[in-house]
C-alpha cells in the first residue's frame, strides 16, 4: 500500500503536532484500551538516519512505551548483545552492518525478540529474506503512524501470550509433578505410629496388600504386623525417629498376611515381601527430642513380585534352564571356592569334563525335542552318581562338568568315573525308543593339572578330547604331554584360519590318463598350503584339522571356485576339453543349500555341469543317505558326474551301491600299492573284485596312486580304463597343467606284453 496516497499523509517525517492529533492516548491501544503495560516492555529502534530515528522514537514514546535508539546496524548489534528487548523496529537498508546482518545475528544467537522490519526496500527478495530470518512483520517506509503502532502492539500482544503460555506451562508441570507423586504413592500402604509404636493411621491399601481391616490394627503395636523372622530388622526401622537422609529408606522385610494366595506369586504364602521407608515426626522440626516427638510416618510398598522375579533371574543366571543343573558360571564360583579351601587345608580336588558319545545321532535322527529329553534323563542319572558336596553342571550342548571336592587319591576319582560309565551304559527308553549313549570323560586333578578354575576346566577338556580320539566311552587323566599336543593343535588351527584369510592355499591338478589312448581325459583338483615358514604342505598336514573344526567347508568351496575358474579359462584359451574332478566333504554335502552353492559357482565361472565330477568318499555317502542321495540326484540331472572316492575302504554294500546316483568307482591307492611283480598272476584279488563289481554295475573305473609300470600293467590287463598317479605326473599348478594339456605327453604310451587277467 502506498501510504503517501492516503488522507492525512503529508511527508516522510510527520510533525509532533500531527502525531499528537492523530495517535491514541498514551494508555490505549488502537481499539481504545491498553494492550500491554508500557513499563513491562522493552523496544529497540534501529535506523541509520538520525532524524528518522528521532521521529520514530517520538512516536513510540508518545504512546507511552519505553524505547532505546540504535543509530546504525553496529549499534543495534551492541544493544542486542547487552540487553533483552521484546520488540525491535529495524531498518533494512543501512551502510556497513545492514538490517539483514542484524536479522542474521538474531537468528544465529537465537535471541528471543519480535522484529518488525520498517524499510523502504519492499522488494520480494528483501521481504523474503527478512521473514526467512524470523521477522515478525514488515512495514514499508513511508509508514502510517497508526499502522506502525498497531503492528508493534500486535507483536507485543504475541509476546504477552507467549509469556502467559510459559507461565501456564510451568504451572502445568508443577501440577503434573504433584499428580504423579499422588499416583505413584497410591499403591503404597501409608501408616502413622504414635510415640509408643502403635498404629494411629492406615490407608485403604492395607486390605488389598495384607488382608487385614484397619480397625483390627489401629491402636495395636506394629510388631503384630511383622513376620517373626524380621522383628529385629523392624525394631530399627518401623518406628523410625530419625529424619532427613539418616531416616530409613527402602528397607526390605516381610510382613504377615492373612490372604491365602494361590500359585507361585509369593515365595511364602503367609508373608509378603515389602519395602519400608519411614521417618520421625516432631511438633517442632527444629527441636527433635523426646518431648517434641509425635510418632513415625512411613510408607510400605509390596515388592513380592519383584523379589520373585529376582529369584527367577538369579536362578536363570546360575542354572541351565533345560536340566536345572548349575551352569558354568555357578560351577566356576564353586570351583574357585573349592580351590581356596584346598589351598588352605592342603586337600586335593578333581574336575571331570564329560562329553556324550552318539548324542548327535539321536539329535539328528529323532529331533531336538527327543534330544532335550535325553539330556534331562542323562542329567538325572549323573546326579545319582554324585557324593554329597559334589557339583554337576551342564557346560553346554551335550557337555557336562563335575566338581569333586576333597578327594584323597586318584582311585577315588576312578571309582566315580567308572560308576558314571556304568550308569550311562544302560539304555534310555524314551517314547518307546531305546537309546544308547556313552561318555568320554577327561579328568584334571588339583593341584597337579592346574591351580586355577580356568586351567582345571581347560585341562579336563583336553583330556576328554584325548580319550574321544582313542575310541570314546572311557576316561583319561590329564598329563602335560596332552597340553603340548593341544597347544600345537590350537596353533595350527589359528594358522589355517589366517592362511585362508591371506590366500596361502593353492589349487594343484593331477592328470587322469586314459590307458587306451594315452590322452589326458581329466584332472583332479587338490589343495596345497604354501605356509610362510614351513613351505609347501600337503593335505595330510591340515585337512584332518579342517574337518574337525568345520573349516573344511570354506576350504572345499574355495578349491571348487578356483578349479572351476581355471578349467573354464583353459577352454577359453583353446586347450582340449578335460573333465574336472573336485572333492566334496561330508560337512559341505550336508550343508543347507549345497546344490545351489556349487551350481552357482559353476555358473559364475562359465563351466557346464557335465564337465564336473564330484568325488565323495564311501563313508560320506553312508552317513545320511536320506539327505545326500536327493542332492546327488539333482546334480546328476543337471549333467554332473559322481564318483565314489577311496572305494573299498568303507562299508557300503552292493544293495546300497545300486541306490547311489554314481558314475565312477575310484580304487583307493592302498590297494594299488599292494600290487607286486610276484603277485601279478593272481595276488591282487581285491582289485579284481572291484573291477568285476564296476563292470556288473556298468560304472567307470579309475585307479589312483599308480607309481610304477607293474601297477600300470596289471591295472590295464584287468580292464581299468583310467589311472592317475606319479607314474604320469605329480600334482601341478594350473599353468603347468595347461601346458601339459597342449603337449599331450602321454599320447604315445605303450604297455609292452600285457599281462593276462588274473583268474
Report on the architecture of this protein.
- The protein is of the alpha/beta class and 759 residues long.
- The chain folds into 4 domains: 3-165, Rossmann fold (3-Layer(aba) Sandwich); 186-311, PAS domain (Beta-Lactamase); 320-478, 2-Layer Sandwich (Alpha-Beta Plaits); 495-742, TIM Barrel, CATH 3.20.20.
- Helix content is 43%, strand content 21%.
- The protein is built from 27 helices and 26 strands.
- The protein has an 8-stranded mixed beta barrel with strand order 18-19-21-22-23-24-25-26, surrounded by 5 helices.
- Helix 3 (73-82) packs parallel to helix 4, helix 12 (359-366) packs antiparallel against helix 13 (368-383) and helix 18 (552-572) runs parallel beside helix 20.
- The longest helix is centred in the first third of the chain and has 41 residues, at 145-185.
- It is flat.
- 32% of the residues are buried.
Topology:
Layout: H1 16-22, E1 43-47, H2 50-62, E2 67-71, H3 73-82, E3 87-90, H4 99-108, E4 114-119, H5 124-132, E5 137-140, H6 145-185, E6 189-194, E7 199-202, H7 206-210, H8 214-217, H9 231-237, E8 251-256, E9 271-282, E10 293-302, H10 304-318, H11 328-345, E11 348-357, H12 359-366, H13 368-383, E12 391-396, E13 399-407, H14 410-425, E14 428-430, E15 433-435, E16 438-446, H15 453-469, E17 474-477, H16 480-502, E18 505-514, E19 520-531, E20 535-537, H17 543-549, H18 552-572, E21 579-583, H19 586-590, H20 594-605, E22 612-617, H21 618-623, H22 625-638, E23 641-647, H23 654-659, E24 664-667, H24 669-673, H25 685-696, E25 700-704, H26 709-717, E26 722-724, H27 734-743
Parallel strand pairs: 1-2, 1-3, 3-4, 4-5, 16-17, 19-21, 21-22, 22-23, 23-24, 24-25, 25-26
Antiparallel strand pairs: 6-7, 6-10, 8-9, 9-10, 11-13, 11-16, 12-13, 14-15, 18-19, 18-26, 19-20
Helix pairs in contact: 3-4, 12-13, 18-20
